[in-house]
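User: Hey, my collaborator sent me this sequence without any context and asked if I could get a structure. I don't really work with proteins. Can you help?
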Amino acid sequence: MALFSYSELSRVSSNEAFDSSLNSTIAKSAASVSVNQNDNFDIFLSHSYSDKDIIPQLKKQLESLGYSVYVDWITDRFLSREQVNKATAEVLQKRMKQSKCLLFATSENSTNSKWMPWELGYFDGIKNKMVGILPLKKDNNGFNEDFRGQEYLGLYFYIDKAKISGSIKETLFVNENSKKYVTFDSWLMGNQPIQRN
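Assistant: No problem. I've predicted the 3D structure and written it out in structure-token form, which is a compact way to encode the shape of the chain:
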């Protein structure tokens, strides 16, 4: 099984790359966002905005595996990251309620994020145990394939990918450790990792 890596993701093309012109759009605010009550997502992707150059590629990879993915500044393009306030939090709360799980994209940058711990705590409170840690491996960050979360992140399962025996298609896995895991699809249906030989 393998973690998602910066080097791999940097080779994925995406038409949703960071748009710096939107970053300075005056009209951006939570009030500009209209949340469709009928939207639903498989994954709420919690991430550091400092990883904005790689997040569109990660979203695209997850979508290529068959999942719908919410990323705040991509899905709600006019949601301001510079003017975060109560209205912004309300939009994010609605989007988390519309999502089946939250994947916490941990990286060197995520340790400085003030919003990611809030998103994780809120989501875990409304959908118990439907949080997975998605390590973004970089040459120098020390994440290995048998990822062990730091501090409170170790309370949650971690996500990686591999091919199921006899298949050429990659699949997401939810792991307690390298010997105890379940497919992502099975986890979304409420199943927990099981011990393997």
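In plain terms: The chain has seven helices and nine strands. You can pass these tokens on to your collaborator as they are.
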